[in-house]
Structures are given as C-alpha cells and as structure tokens.
C-alpha cells in the first residue's frame, strides 16, 4: 500500500503519461525530483495523468503503479538518469515491456533529465528523444505542453521542443548546437511537493520522514564535483518558506520527522535556524552530510536533540596535499578535532573518502590511513561506530578530470588492496566496485558512439559480465577514460552551457594540475 498516490479518473480524453524511474522503488522515494515531477505535472495539467513505474525484480513487462496499465500503453515517457548506470535499466525496462529502446523505431517520445543527462546527453542519443538541460520546475511543464498541443505527432513535437534553448533533441539538433541550462531563480516561488508518496512496506533510506530541500546548488568548487557545477548558483529557501513547507508537510503526511536535502549543509544561517526550529518543536531530523567547519557544540546539541544518531561527513581525503589539489582543503588538525567533537557528542560517524588521483602517492594514502586510525581509536574509546565509504575517483565532464582521466584499474586495485590491509578491522568499510567506476566514467565521458553499446548492454540486462562481452563484440575502446581528453580538443559535451564562469574556472584548474602532474 502506498500513501499519497495521485488518483485521476481515466477517460478517452485523458493524456496518459508515465514517469519511468530506472531504479528501485526506495531510490525513487528518496529522489525529491521524482516527487516534484509527479505532483507538479498532475497538478498543473488537469487532462494529463502522469503515473509511475520503477525497476522491480520482476522480468517485465512493467506496469504503472496507479492503474496497472502496461508501459507500452502510455503515449509519453518521462525519466530521470541520476546515475549513468541506470541507462541499462531503462533499456531493459523498455525492451521487456515490448517497447523498442531505439528512439527512431518508437512512437512514444522519451523525455530524460537528471544529472547524467544534463552533464552530457550524447551517450544516450540513440535511446532518448529529448534531453532536458535544467531543473524540472522550469523546463518540464513547457515540454509537456508541447505534447498536449501535438499529441501522437512525435516528429512535430520534437521539432517544436527543439526550439527551447534548454532542450537537446538528438534526432534534430547537431551535436554542437549550444544548449543553455535553465534553473529555478527563486526557490521560494518554485513548486514544492507537500504531499509525498511512500509505501508502508518499503522504508525511506533516511527513515520515515518528510523531505525538505533547504537549498539547491553549492557555494564551493571542489574540483572533482560535477554535481555542484550542474546546480550552480547556490540558492536557499527563506526561513519563512521553509517553516511553511515543514508545517504543511508534516501535517499533510502525518509525520514528525524532517529529512533535509541540501548539497552542502549548512551553507547559511537559515539552514542552521531551521534545525533549531525542528528541534525546538519536538520533531526529529535527518540531515545530509555536514560541513566540518560548522561542527560547533551548540549545533551538534540541536541535531542530537532532534534525534539524529549518526553524522555523515565528506572530507573526501585526509591528506592535506590531496585536499589542496581537489580544492577541498581544511587544516588536518581542524578536520580531526571536528570529527572528535562529533564523536564526543555521542554520534556515530560515516565518512566519504576518495582515492585514485593520478599524482597520489602511497605516502598520501598513508597520511589518510593514519588519520583514519586516529578517528577509529577515538570512536572506539567512546563506543561510537565509524563507517567509511571509499570510492575511486570517477572523472566527470565539466571538471578538470575530463583532461586528466582515471588511474588504470591495476593501480586502483593495488591501492585498494593496500588500504584494506592497513585499515583497522573494526572500521566498517564500504568499497565502491572499481569496475563499476570504470563503466560509469566510460559512459559519462563518451560521445554518441557509445549509444549502440549501451543499447546492447541494456538488452543483455546490464552488469559487468555483459559490459565486457559487449565491448569485445563491438570493439568499443574506453581508453579515453584513462587518458583523458587532450587539452584544447573539442569535448563531446562542449555544447552544454552550464555556467558562464565555468570555462574560466576550468582553465585555471587545469593550469594547477598541469604544473603538478606535468601532463
Ligand atoms: S563536493 Fe560538496 S562542497 Fe564540494 S562542490 Fe560538491 S557539493 Fe559542494
């Protein structure tokens, strides 16, 4: 059973659309953009019924959650690719529902957004029909409107939407046609999903609560971080608006926990005030990863009062040399003291760390491991748990790593073996599979030529075995992942205009790296 499912009467005039989420139900529930899209389109368009489907363990065909209608009976498909790997699920879900995953053989248009598409839509050019480069609130309604005006005429619809400056239509636009990102300028006046769907059988990854996006974007420019570049500039909701959203949301959904969404938290006084508001009203809170410079006693007390037991931090590396290189530098003593303070306040700690920079030495890794040992022993002393999520750097478009590339997989495995050997056994460590990091980079850094590979890969059901088989069969090489693109060479995603300062910033970042690794 699900709460807050949108119910509409279906008649001959109803425009049947589906939101296809190419991952599991719990991921869809945790994705705030899924809620925004679902409720916004159903509210704005009386004659449109947007239903949902998601990846389940069933073999297919896929049905809508709302009316159990098969996927192939919908005239219009909206999807979001949060991770590059989800493309295999999308292809599989279409195919197993009797829909051709190749765009030119299909009558239904597929409208795709989300970080993977926004950063570089070209890898998906033979699968999706419309790539949306922007935030849903200010892009999707106009696209849906165009379909309402041109129903069942896919060709005409595509011609019409291709005139929108934030839309890329692979079958019409040249790959170098400039596409301009569109974003919400004032979050307070943007649509917000006060009702949020949730299932009684599937728990939200952050516990049963109401999701509140306090801010969007990030003030910082960490050099590896594509996400922040896709959602610049930093925008915050006002305190008054957040109070209103929280009051209405908790009441409407009959909940007493607030799950805060923010890329970098807290980045303003408003975000600190809202935690105070939540704690003082007796609600519980779940906060995203916390910036270490904001680890102050009174703030930790408030979070504790609001029931949070574990805090997530993302220093990314614990060696100052690497921290400087990735522009996420904080004095190591300050980092350690902030983490000790978190532990001393009785929190468990979850830490996101990264390795695999081309100039990273084993000494740099040793410095990181020494710090982990210190943190772990402090936690042990205080009876707290430490979890580490350790990820190989995945070079992404619009970051300096587009020119630097990824370390080779043999070296990555060596480093990982070394880290595993040296880490204290009582530290709970989650390691991201190196081969999936390779696949993710191969997709995100590619041009259109990977599209056929992705279709075949999806038809085989995804996974590493079939990835290797398809690469072998097609002769597709992923050497660009490890070599990076040549500086000055045209990049596949250079038609995607994200931010007017980005080019200057990237050039400056590249100069720094060039001096360091002499590439
Ligand atoms: S890693 Fe975090 S702090 Fe750094 S730019 Fe990305 S979102 Fe912002």
Automatic annotation (TrEMBL):
<keyword id="KW-0472">Membrane</keyword>
<dbReference type="InterPro" id="IPR007197">
    <property type="entry name" value="rSAM"/>
</dbReference>
<dbReference type="Pfam" id="PF19864">
    <property type="entry name" value="Radical_SAM_N2"/>
</dbReference>
<dbReference type="GO" id="GO:0003824">
    <property type="term" value="F:catalytic activity"/>
</dbReference>
<dbReference type="GO" id="GO:0051536">
    <property type="term" value="F:iron-sulfur cluster binding"/>
</dbReference>
<dbReference type="InterPro" id="IPR045784">
    <property type="entry name" value="Radical_SAM_N2"/>
</dbReference>
<protein>
    <submittedName>
        <fullName>Radical SAM protein</fullName>
    </submittedName>
</protein>
<dbReference type="InterPro" id="IPR006638">
    <property type="entry name" value="Elp3/MiaA/NifB-like_rSAM"/>
</dbReference>
<dbReference type="InterPro" id="IPR058240">
    <property type="entry name" value="rSAM_sf"/>
</dbReference>
<feature type="domain" description="Radical SAM core">
    <location>
        <begin position="204"/>
        <end position="433"/>
    </location>
</feature>
<keyword id="KW-0812">Transmembrane</keyword>
<keyword id="KW-1133">Transmembrane helix</keyword>
<dbReference type="Pfam" id="PF04055">
    <property type="entry name" value="Radical_SAM"/>
</dbReference>
<feature type="transmembrane region" description="Helical">
    <location>
        <begin position="20"/>
        <end position="41"/>
    </location>
</feature>
<dbReference type="InterPro" id="IPR023404">
    <property type="entry name" value="rSAM_horseshoe"/>
</dbReference>
């Amino acid at each position: 059973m699900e709460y807050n499912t949108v119910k509409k009467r279906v008649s001959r005039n109803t425009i049947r659309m589906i939101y296809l989420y190419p991952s599991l139900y719990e991921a869809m529930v945790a994705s705030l953009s899924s809620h925004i899209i679902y409720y916004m389109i159903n509210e704005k368009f009386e004659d449109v019924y947007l239903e949902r489907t998601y990846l389940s363990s069933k073999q297919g065909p896929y049905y809508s959650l709302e009316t159990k209608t098969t996927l192939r009976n919908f005239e219009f498909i909206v999807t979001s690719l949060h991770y590059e790997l989800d493309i295999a699920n999308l292809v599989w879900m279409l195919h197993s529902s009797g829909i051709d995953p190749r765009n030119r053989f299909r009558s239904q248009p597929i409208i795709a957004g989300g970080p993977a598409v926004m950063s570089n839509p070209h890898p998906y050019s033979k699968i999706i029909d419309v790539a949306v480069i922007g935030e849903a609130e200010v892009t999707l309604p106009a696209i849906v409107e165009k379909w309402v005006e041109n129903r069942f005429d896919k060709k005409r619809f595509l011609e019409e939407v291709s005139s929108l400056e934030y839309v890329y239509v692979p079958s019409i636009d040249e790959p170098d046609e400039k596409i301009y990102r569109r974003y919400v300028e004032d979050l307070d006046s943007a649509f917000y999903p006060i009702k949020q769907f949730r299932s009684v059988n599937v728990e939200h990854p952050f516990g049963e609560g109401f999701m509140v996006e306090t801010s969007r974007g990030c003030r910082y420019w960490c050099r590896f971080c594509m996400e922040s570049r896709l959602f610049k500039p930093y925008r915050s909701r006002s305190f008054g608006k957040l109070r209103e959203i929280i009051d209405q949301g908790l009441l409407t959904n009959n909940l007493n926990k607030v799950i805060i969404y923010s890329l970098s938290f807290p980045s303003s006084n408003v975000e600190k005030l809202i935690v105070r508001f939540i704690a003082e009203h007796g609600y519980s809170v779940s906060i995203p990863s916390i910036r270490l410079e904001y680890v102050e006693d009174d703030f930790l007390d408030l979070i504790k009062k609001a029931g949070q037991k574990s805090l997530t931090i993302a220093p990314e590396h614990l060696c100052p040399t690497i921290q400087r290189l990735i522009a996420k530098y904080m004095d190591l003593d300050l980092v350690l003291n902030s983490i000790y303070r978190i532990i001393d306040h009785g929190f468990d700690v979850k830490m996101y760390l990264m390795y695999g920079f081309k100039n990273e030495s084993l000494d740099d890794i040793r410095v990181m491991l020494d710090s982990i040992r210190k943190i772990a022993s402090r936690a042990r002393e205080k009876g707290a748990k430490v979890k580490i999520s350790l990820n190989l750097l995945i070079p992404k478009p619009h970051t300096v790593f587009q020119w630097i590339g990824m370390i080779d997989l043999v070296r990555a495995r060596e480093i990982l073996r070394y880290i595993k050997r040296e880490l204290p056994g009582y530290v709970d460590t989650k390691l991201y599979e190196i081969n999936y990091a390779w696949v993710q980079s191969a997709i995100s850094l590619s041009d259109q030529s990977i599209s056929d590979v992705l279709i075949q890969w999806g038809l085989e059901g995804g996974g590493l075995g079939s990835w290797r088989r398809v690469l072998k069969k097609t002769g597709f090489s992923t050497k660009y992942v490890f070599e990076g693109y040549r500086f000055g060479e045209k990049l596949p995603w250079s038609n995607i205009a994200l931010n007017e300062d980005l080019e200057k910033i990237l050039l400056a970042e590249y100069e720094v790296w060039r001096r360091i690794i002499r590439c």
